[in-house]
Amino acid sequence: QLQLVESGGGLVQPGGSLRLSCAASGFTSQYYVIGWFRQVPGKEREGVSCISSGDGSTTYADSVKGRFTISRDNAKNTVYLQMNSLKPEDTAIYYCAHEYLNSCGRNAPRSAYFRSWGQGTQVTVSS
User: Fold this and answer.
1) 9-57 confidence digits (pLDDT tens)
2) Is the distance from CB of 73 to CB of 82 less than 8 angstroms?
3) Are 10 and 18 in contact (CB under 8 A)?
4) Terminal-residue alpha carbon distance, the chain
5) DSSP 48-99
6) pLDDT of 49-67, one tens digit each?
7) Which helix (DSSP H) or strand (DSSP E) does residue 108 occupy?
8) Which of 23, 64, 75, 99 is surrounded by the fewest CB atoms within 10 Å?
């Protein structure tokens, strides 16, 4: 059974950094994508970033380009989201998600395309 576990959330001041981790297990294919999403109460879930297991290609939402970096450690089956220059508007619950796709495409991930989700981790950016 596929499982995703996020960690690394917390409280950080504006301008600070956090690194989120998504530990995954239970894959049945080597070809998949992992997406990071975020959601605040009353708003739709927003796609933040995506990485492909194959060629390692990545995509980002415009709101995080230049500040966030997604990466992977295949040996540990873990995907990371390094978040720098954090802003109060980055405050949200962050989720990672998995889907058996060959590519992330060209745009930020869309939640409708992902079937497996982690439980989420809270990120709060506040002084």
Assistant:
1) 999 999 999 999 999 999 888 889 999 999 999 999 999 999 998 888 9
2) no
3) yes
4) 40
5) EEEEETTT--EEE-TTTTTTEEEEEEGGGTEEEEEE-S--GGG-EEEEEEEE
6) 999 988 889 999 999 999 9
7) none
8) 75
